[in-house]
Each structure stands twice: as structure tokens, then as C-alpha cells.
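## tool: complex_structure
## caller: assistant
## args:
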Amino acid sequence: MKTNRQEFALRMSVAAVRGALLALVVSQAAYADDQEPSVKELTRPTSTVEAGAEWVSKDSFKFGEYNGLENKGVYGIGNLDLRGGGLYDSNDTSRWRLLGRDLGTDARSAKGEYGWQGRFRINVGYDELLRNDNDRYQTRTWGPAPTIWRCPATGAPRSTRTAPRWVPATRFRRRWRRWSAWRRPATAARW
Amino acid sequence: MKFLRHPAVFTAALCLAWMAAPVPAAETDQPAASAAPEVQAPLNDDAKCTRCHDESEAVPVLSIYQTRHGVKADARTPTCQGCHGPSEAHLKGDPNQKGRARPDIVYAAKAYKPNASHELAQTCLGCHSSGKRQHWSGSAHDSEGMACSNCHRIHTPNDAVLDRVTQAEVCFGCHKEQRAQMHRYSTHPVLAGKMGCTDCHNPHGSTGPKLMVKNSVNETCHTCHAEKRGPFLWEHQPVSDDCTNCHNPHGSNNSPLLKARLPWLCQECHSGDHARSAYSGANLPGGNVTTVNGNKPFQNQSTTVQIAGRDCLNCHSLIHGSNSPAGAKFQR
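## result:
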């Protein structure tokens, strides 16, 4: 009877390859920890990208007031900060940047920037802002149907006992979206 | 975990781990030999300092070349000595002296005592004296002996005070009361990273009170809350005078940013008619009528309802001003 067993094969050739790969990983990590950051790492524009997933267990009116964090399952979030342009020791004074924050949430923002230092810079931005509000108030419309309007000190005596109508606690959510764009010229010698 | 035994999976996992490992440094610490001729002169000046202050520095020094202060092709960009002074004694050193003479301009180095704040500020103001920095001299922060380097970090591409998300933490380093107020129930979205302190304040100096970006508190508030600006047919005097008569912009436990809860906030000014007492019910539906035909009670409704819900604003809802011909009392 022939059996097919998925086992970690200990053939010499396979073990050698895997051992070499493992040694490469370990040596690189150890070597990098001992090294100081290089000149290139310190002088070149650095970009960062963060990505992940988010899950909020329970909605909270206050906790998610401005940040859009609410219970809507698992969803992706991320931040990015991409930079580039000419090098510090070159003739190229152009620099650009792409910045994104809280991507994936309802409080996301993004900004793009490009310019030639000493000449001009252009910025374009997008921003979302959420605002939760909780309000409860009473109106001056009396009775079961909102047709009776009472004004202080002028209302006629009423034959039945009624009360002002209460509007129950209501949660409002407002969302602002803002697009922005501006250009900054480099004009005067002093800036 | 049996799947990890599969040779292909194991090999793939090792490859992923190898790609995630940091790449070892291979470059030298010499400046680019292929630098453009126009930038070679300032680079040579910088080399006097970076010969010692290289990538081995614990405090980031070379990372200034990622910032606008490091773009050498811009003729305005200073060299190291442009900000830190010629520092001849520091460069030459003295074998008979323990340690090394201090540079001419020291900002925040722990090894030397920093220069006076006005000297440090003048070094930066030599270039950055326009725009928002016009009123630095004699401003609140200048008067407190602060310099630019107390808030700004020049040698890093991520200056915390220039980023809206991290800016408030820099200010909170001194302004502890505002830090506490920002954690109250009702606040501006500063901690959420949607606003920074500089959206309202100009820390470099201002013609307005409290370092406002505009000439007055109201002008500053109206840059965002334009619907409160007016002009209105019926104005509410404390609104047109100063928003902080009623609001605390840094934070409050009385939404929205009120200094005190209604009706007591209104009773700080209003003491007549039914405003005299929160329980009077005077001239209100169901309350005692004291100004019409004497003390004639209406139905026996509890008068405490006027302090529930929005309190005074249940009726006087347009409290910031009204354009209705019948809105003299801000009810419509």
C-alpha cells in the first residue's frame, strides 16, 4: 500500500537550502541591528506606509465623535506619507509629498503637495470631519398633534390640561467635507 | 499547523522574513562625489561640521538634508555655520583645554549652555521675519524668554509642531490647563487631529488678544463659524461682543463649549421676569403670570420644565441673533 505523507522532508539537499535561507535571515537582522543609519537613509526623503484593520466592538456616541470609529465590522485603515523629489546635493529643488491619514475611516484626510523650493508650492487637500450631537428639547407646540402653538403670556386659557411636546433625545451626525487648494509663491527675499 | 511542514510554504515563509529584514548599510559617510557644481561650495562648508557630526550622532543631524533647510540648490538655504555661527574655536579645538570650545550659537545641545533666547530668535528671524512672524518681538512667547528652538525641531523632517496631529502635544508641554480642558466632554476636534492650536492662535505673535490669528476673538471664531457672525436684525450683545462671554473654546463639560450650564449662564446677566428664578415660571405657559393682570396662574404645570432640555433655549433658540421681524427675543 502506498501512502502519501506530508512530512518535513529531511533530505540533505532540502535541509541545506532551508538552512542557508534561515542563516541569511538571521545574519541580516543581526547585522542591521549593529549598523548605524547610513548617510543615504538620513539624507533621502523617507516614505512610510501603515496599513491595518480595525474593528470597534460597540458604538459610542462620544468615543466616535470626531474620529468616525463605530461598530461596522472589520475594515481596513491606513496612513501613508510618501515623499520624493530632488536630492539635497543636486540642482533639482523639486519636492513632492502625498499624505493620507485615517484612510478607511469616516474622518479621512489627504493632502498633496508639489513645489520647486524658492519658486512656488501647490497644495491640494481633502478632509472629512464628523460631529455627533445629542440633543433633547421641548417645543412650544402643544397637544398630541403639532397644531397648537402657544406663545408665552399671550396664549388663551386652555380647557384641557396639556403639556408641551417633548422631542426625545436625538442623535445627530453631521459630516463636513472640505476641499482645499492653495499656491504659495516664494516672493520676497525674506519669507 | 501541518501546513507549515510543506516545503514550499516553509520556503516561502523564509523568503518573506528575509525581505522584511532591514537592509544592511552599504554606503560610506562621504558626501556625494557627483554633487552639482553649484551646490558643492555649501556642501564643502557643511563638511567642516559633518566631518565629526555624521551619521553616528545620537541626535539626528544629517536628517536636515531631508528638510527644506537642506536643499542646497536653493541659494537661500543656510549652511551649518549660517545658523550655528562660524564657530572657529570649536572647529580648531584646543589640546590644552578639556573638551571642545562651544559653538557660537547653541540651541538645545546638552553639552553646552544655550545662547540667550533673543540671540537664538534673531538667528531664525534673519530669514523668517515676514508673514506670521512679523509680530514676534514683544510677543507673549518672546516676553517669556522663548526661542524658536523651544518648539521647532529643525534637523528632523517631521517637526511635531508643524503637523496638526502632533502640534497640540508640543503646546501642552507648557499649557497644562488647556491640556486638561481639551479632555472635557465638549471640545474642538484638536485631540482628534482635525484642528491644531495654530488654527486659532499665532504663537509667533499677533495683533489680537491671546495671540489670536485675527484682530479679535470674534473674528477668529467667525473664520469657521461664519453663521454666527451676522449682522442680524436683532443682535444679542454678548454674542457680538465676545464669544468667550459664554463659551470656553478649549473645552467644557457643558455642551456646546459653554462656560456654565443653562439657565445659570443666562442668569449671569438676566435677572428680570421669568429669568429671575429657574422655578418661577413667570410668563411661561403653565406658570404664574406676573406681568399680565396680576398673579394669575394658569394650569398647574410644573414650572421646572423650563430648566429641562435646552433650558432657556427651548424658546429663545436663536440666541446668537435673529433676522425675523418678530425675533426681538430670539424665539424665531
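## assistant note: The CA atoms of residues 283 and 289 of chain B lie 5 Å apart. Chain B touches chain A through 74 residues (CB under 8 Å). Handing back to user.
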